[in-house]
Amino acid sequence: MQLPAQFVIVFDPVTHAAHFIDVKGEPTRERQSLSVVFNKVRAPTGHGQVCARGRCGLTLENRTDRRVLPANHLAGHELHELLGKRRKFLTAKRMLTNQTFRDIYRTTRWTWTSA
């Protein structure tokens, strides 16, 4: 495959494994080779691989007892723009620090009396 000067993500949605490749530098005519191994480690992540722009042979090895469906993604401007449009979701911290929630569900002191 031909690698542009961008951040490349090799992601497998089955095992949730991700491998990050930082493509930098001057283009080269020499063919480079990278190897990605999918194993049984829970959500393995590999990063720190740097290679030059140009042709790159990617070797994928499956060492799990399940299938893998890896895909290459370019993490360019379009991806960052898409992620910037996400709506915020409700977390416990946001809910519990919301003043309206605190007003509605304020704690009251209960006194128990014996009958």
Provide the fold topology.
Layout: E1 2-3, E2 7-12, E3 17-23, E4 28-38, E5 45-51, E6 54-62, E7 71-74, H1 77-84, H2 92-96, H3 99-104
Given helix and strand content, the structural type is alpha/beta
Q: What pattern of helices and strands is seen along the backbone? A: EEEEEEEHHH
CA(first)-CA(last) distance: 80 Å
Largest sheet: 4 strands, mixed
- Unreliably modeled segments: none
Number of strand elements? 7
- Number of distinct helices: 3
The gross shape turns out to be elongated
Query: Whole-number average pLDDT?
Result: 80
What is the share of helical residues?
A: 10-25%
Q: Indicate the proportion of strand residues.
A: 35-45%
- Over the alpha carbons, how many angstroms does the gyration radius reach? 24 Å
Strand arrangement within the widest β-sheet reads 5-3-2-7
Care to give the gist of this entry?
It is elongated and about 85 Å long. It has 115 residues and is of the alpha/beta class.
Descriptors:
115 residues; three-stranded mixed beta sheet; 3 helices
Description:
It contains 3 helices and 7 strands; from the N terminus they run E-E-E-E-E-E-E-H-H-H. A hairpin with a 4-residue loop joins strand 2 and strand 3. A 4-stranded mixed beta sheet has the order 5-3-2-7, with no helix packed on it. The radius of gyration is 24 Å and the shape is elongated. The longest helix is centred in the C-terminal third of the chain and has 8 residues. With 115 residues, the protein is an alpha/beta fold.
